[in-house]
């Protein structure tokens, strides 16, 4: 009895030791999931959040053998973000059979969607974090950076680092994303590209859609325009959007611009 109690107490302390920084915003359900994940993936420590966006927070995690992961925890706080989740999930053929009931299930769908998108990117050879695992509202992926210090975003680079070579690499990744993975990022910008060792990494693909999505072309054009605008602002001569589009295999992509199809 005493022994059992002590073991329980020891286990509790061990679980708490997992968290280097106490984060009061983690709800109890997520906290338990993180403990289960730690056992599964041999995670020794979770560190303090490196970012908190509108829909997720990212935490570095260190495994027993010294590998760093990025742990993305999804949460939904506002009706607006719930609507955003629905907007991108509905219309994607891969999720047409998903019956969404509660907000938590919606968040889980969202986490799984980003995981599946990362798998597609990884298999297509697109430079993006390798997906490791998804469990409930938590996605685990390779950490971009070193020793738990994240790589800079494209947005954060110094003027000398923003050059034509990097521009070409970014456009190259976008091409692979469309032509091989058949995905459109949907929120591509200097905020969703990390740069490590002069190599761009495409991140934040939870809202990315299949080429068959009704808004695919519109989103794709916006993505290209965002990238062009960023590099143009840094005095890099960029390709015309049409020239980039002409290399993309998007001939049978749905387009709201086309109204002359036979009915
Ligand atoms: P935001 O609303 O701020 O865009 P988000 O909820 O969309 O955040 P992400 O863009 O996926 O989440 O990630 C947020 C931040 O976490 C990124 O800007 C980047 O700094 C960091 N980050 C994301 N993925 C990784 C990773 N695999 N390795 C290291 N850092 C990462
Ligand atoms: Mn982001």
From TrEMBL:
Reaction catalysis annotation: L-seryl-[protein] + ATP = O-phospho-L-seryl-[protein] + ADP + H(+); L-threonyl-[protein] + ATP = O-phospho-L-threonyl-[protein] + ADP + H(+)
CDD domains: RIO1_like
UniProt entry keywords in alphabetical sequence: ATP-binding, Kinase, Magnesium, Metal-binding, Nucleotide-binding, Serine/threonine-protein kinase, Transferase
Domain named Protein kinase: residues: 44-263
The keyword Kinase is assigned to this record: yes
Transmembrane segments: none
EC number: 2.7.11.1
Top class in the EC scheme: transferase
Pfam families, A to Z: RIO1 (PF01163)
Entry similarity comment: Belongs to the protein kinase superfamily. RIO-type Ser/Thr kinase family.
Protein name: non-specific serine/threonine protein kinase
């Amino acid at each position: 009895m005493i022994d059992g109690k002590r073991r329980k107490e020891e286990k509790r302390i061990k679980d708490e030791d997992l968290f280097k920084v106490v984060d009061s915003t983690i709800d109890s359900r997520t906290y338990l999931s993180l403990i289960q994940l730690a056992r599964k993936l041999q995670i020794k420590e979770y560190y303090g959040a490196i970012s908190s966006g509108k829909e997720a927070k990212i935490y570095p995690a260190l495994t027993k053998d010294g590998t760093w992961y990025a742990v993305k925890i999804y949460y939904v706080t506002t009706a607006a973000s719930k609507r955003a989740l629905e907007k991108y999930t509905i219309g994607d053929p891969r999720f047409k059979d998903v019956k969404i009931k509660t907000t938590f299930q919606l968040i889980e769908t969202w986490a799984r969607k980003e995981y599946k998108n990362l798998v597609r990117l990884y298999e297509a050879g697109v430079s993006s974090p390798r997906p490791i695992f998804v469990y409930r509202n938590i996605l685990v992926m390779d950490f971009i950076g070193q020793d738990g210090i994240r790589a800079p975003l494209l947005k954060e680079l110094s003027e000398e680092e923003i050059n034509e070579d990097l521009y070409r690499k970014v456009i190259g990744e976008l091409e692979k994303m469309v032509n091989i993975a058949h995905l459109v990022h949907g929120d591509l910008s200097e905020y969703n590209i990390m740069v490590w060792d002069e190599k761009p990494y495409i991140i934040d693909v939870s809202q990315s859609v299949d080429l068959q999505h009704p808004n695919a072309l519109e989103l794709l054009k916006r993505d290209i325009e965002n990238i062009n605008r960023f590099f143009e602002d840094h005095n890099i001569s960029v390709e015309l959007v049409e020239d980039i589009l002409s290399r993309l295999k998007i001939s049978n992509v749905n387009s709201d611009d086309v109204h002359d199809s036979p009915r």
